[in-house]
Specification:
This protein is mainly α. The protein has helices spanning 21-26, 31-55, 67-77, 81-89, 92-95, 101-106, 111-120, 128-136, 141-159, 164-179. The chain has a single domain (30-179), classed as Hypothetical protein af1432. Helix 2 runs parallel beside helix 4 (81-89). It is globular. It comes from Mesorhizobium humile. Residues 1-32 are annotated as: Disordered.
Amino acid sequence: MQDGAQPRFPAKARHRTGLRPEQARLGRPSPGRALLRRDWKDLMLHQAAKIAEQAHRGQKDKTGQPYIEHLRRVADAVETLDEKTVAYLHDVVEKGNGWSLDRLHEAGFSLTVVAAVDALTKRMDESEEGSIFRAASNELALPVKIADLRDNLWQAHQAGVAPDRYETGLGILGDLAARD
């Protein structure tokens, strides 16, 4: 570059992080970052559905339908992409074949998603109430647990199975919500 010449950088040059200089100072991500994050979450949701379908292959729900249908109904009943991802994965560790929390993390799921799946995974010798309280303590797991209990209640009615445990679970969660 000759003396006195200005470097050839665009007026709105970006730092290697994807932030324009004024955004870097203010700590705001560029609009493109939000799109990348959403694309990543869409990809992870698709991956969760594929894992769930494979892990529950051959399993049936209370109504005799493929188990994946229960997971789809739960995913449809929640709002965010992370909630939908957790909905597909919520029974993979407990009832699926070959999946652990570590394997889910190794598959690319965030610690937040894996922690929510952990909160929804019933432990051996754990009471139903203990399981519900643990799920309720995780912000991401809670709406999935509510949707899961509601779908299980619907299935129980459809199949003529006693709905008591699902009604009790929803009652506990309702009582917890009333305290807040």
